[in-house]
Amino acid sequence: MTKQPDAVPARGRELPHPDPDAIRLGDVLHALADPVRLSVVSALAADGGELACSEIELPVTRSTCTHHYRVLRESGVLRQIYRGTAKMNQLRRKDLDDRFPGLLDSVLAAAAGEGSGG
């Protein structure tokens, strides 16, 4: 009897995400420092649920969008899952709040203040 590998995903379209305890402050701050990525996070925070990539309008090419979403996912800021052909995005608010209390709310408030000219 041959042993099956432990790390084989149940479906071929699962994406890797860092465990909550592996999320690093520097990675999160780097991800949130970009205005395009911050607009994605703001949209997800305002929605409170899941949004498809196509539901968030960004002023960049599709390949650049893919890059921004990957940075957000790999830093632990959002979770991405496939639902059919759509890639759904959800803010990892609880993980971020548990790891870095108040950080996400502070960044979102500051971003909203900048956007309103304040």
Automatic annotation (TrEMBL):
Residues 1-20 are annotated as: Disordered. This is ArsR/SmtB family transcription factor. InterPro entries: ArsR-like_HTH, HTH_ArsR_DNA-bd_dom, WH-like_DNA-bd_sf, WH_DNA-bd_sf. Pfam families: HTH_20 (PF12840). PROSITE patterns: HTH_ARSR_2. SMART domains: HTH_ARSR. Residues 17-111 form the HTH arsR-type domain. Coiled coil: none annotated. Residues 11-20 have a biased composition (Basic and acidic residues). CDD domains: HTH_ARSR (cd00090).
